[in-house]
Amino acid sequence: MGVDVELARHLVDAVALAARAFGPAEAERLERLDPDSREREFRRAWVRHEAGLKCLGTGIGAAPAAEAGGGSPWIAELEMGERAAAAVAVTEAPSELRCWEWQATPARGS
Q1: Torsion of CA 40, 45, 46, 50, to 10 degrees
Q2: At 34, is the pLDDT very low, low, confident or very high (cuts 50, 70, 90)?
Q3: What was the pLDDT predicted at 69?
């Protein structure tokens, strides 16, 4: 299982990062978007990528799962709002995926 969560932050060059991490087709797709959409879409692609790598137990520099001879994990994006992105990856598609939302409780003495 692999999980990744990313919060919004200004990227120096999302298109260049996408070209290195995902290849030229994804970089070109992102380049056509307006800056806000580009950062949001990059975040979504990044969490899917990271969750998949974590699931497979490989590092950032590893070849994609299909190239490495492994299968591609099943990946689901989790709804996090406009300023964050999250994804979960597992080796086989689950029969059910449940998500819960809860309110954080303040620490004592706060």
Answers
A1: 150
A2: very high
A3: 54
Residue 101 lies inside a defined structural domain of this protein: no
Give the model's pLDDT for residue 82.
Answer: 85
d(CA 29, CA 96): 32
For 8, 32, 37, 43, 56, the CA distances from 81, given in Å and listed in that order, are 10, 22, 13, 12, 27
Phi, psi angle pair for 24, to nearest 5°: -65, -35
Asked if residue 32 is part of any domain, the answer here is yes
Q: pLDDT tens-digit profile of 44-97?
A: 999 999 999 999 988 776 655 555 556 789 999 998 888 899 999 999 999 988
Residue 39 maps to a domain: yes
Distances in Å between the Cα of 102 and the Cα atoms of 10, 11, 38, 80, 98 are 28, 30, 29, 13, 13
What's the predicted TM-score (pTM) here? Answer: 0.79
| CATH code of 78's domain | 3.90.470.20
Domain count, the chain: 1
